[in-house]
Write a structure and sequence with these properties.
alpha+beta; Jelly Rolls; Arc Repressor Mutant, subunit A; three-stranded antiparallel sheet; globular; AraC-bd; HTH_AraC
């Protein structure tokens, strides 16, 4: 990945990237255990969260909480430049123990109200905050302080928009069949769910389900289920739950399958993650 700016510690991951041109298949569906704030500087495309597409334009923001599956498709004729901040919500607890600043992330349905277009917040203020962060180049301590202090200002702007209730700034889901399917999967994620049970629930064939789901999410039904279960399992590991127990709690039938999938998805073993935290 082409990083123009980069900072990483155990709670925060901030980066600025520019791809010229953007790769047509580089930004596939994924989910992760951390929250994400995404700001588009240049380019245009479609950002899809849990099957709901949002049209991206410069100076707009996307927000995703833990385990919201998402992917982006960008116009290949334009440079794709963005700023992204990944963060663990716990890092805000000393400042905001009730997590009121995270209301735009937490107090909404899955894949709903993820998009904040230019004009729904003070773009001048938000750009100034990001520029303050980008100015710090070599001192990691100062970089972290700049990220935290300016991020709080950005969160405050998001909360103003989120609580405004202006109909033009509320971004609802698409009310499609796949929105219902995705909601059903997430409600039954840790049960012994199968393609057959989903098809029976929604009275559609396997080929219909697979085609519509792939179109909505850019992945298959089963890959979607496995990725969401793995992210949930990683959460449990970070909370001190033993790997065997996390495996069973998240819908895996046996530990060997869980272990293999975990390594494939995260590039490390469950035990390594336990030791890290």
């Amino acid at each position: 990945m082409n990083f123009q700016d980069y900072y990483l510690d155990h709670e925060l991951f901030f980066h600025k990237n520019c791809d010229m041109p953007p790769h047509p298949t580089k930004y596939g569906m994924h989910a992760h255990e951390i929250y994400e704030l995404y700001y588009l500087l240049s380019g245009k495309g479609v950002f899809t969260v849990e099957g709901n597409p949002y049209e991206l334009k410069p100076n707009s923001m996307m927000i995703m909480r833990s385990n919201e599956a998402h992917y982006v498709q960008m116009d290949s004729d334009l440079p794709y430049e963005r700023i992204v901040l990944h963060f663990y919500p716990q890092f805000l607890d000393p400042i905001d123990p009730n997590r009121t600043l995270l209301a735009p992330f937490d107090n909404r349905g899955l894949g709903i109200n993820n998009y904040y277009p230019a004009g729904s917040f003070s773009n001048q203020l938000v750009r100034s905050c990001f520029n303050n962060i980008l100015e710090i180049k070599e001192n990691d301590y100062q970089k972290r302080v700049a990220i935290i202090t300016n991020f709080l200002t950005i969160l405050n702007e998001l909360n103003k928009s989120f609580h405004n209730k202006d109909p033009q700034l509320l971004f609802t889901d698409q009310n499609s069949k796949m929105t219902e399917v995705i909601s059903y999967i997430n409600e039954h994620l840790y049960e012994q769910i199968s393609i057959e049970t989903i098809c029976n629930q929604f009275y559609i064939s396997k080929s219909q389900l697979n085609n519509l789901f792939k179109k909505a999410t850019n992945t298959t039904v089963w890959k979607y289920i496995v990725s969401k279960r793995l992210v949930s399992a990683r959460h449990l590991l970070y909370d001190g739950v033993p790997a065997n127990e996390a495996c069973m709690k998240c819908g895996f039938k046996d530990y060997s399958t869980f272990y293999r999938r975990y390594r494939e998805y995260f590039g490390t073993s469950p035990q390594n993650d336990v030791n890290k935290f």
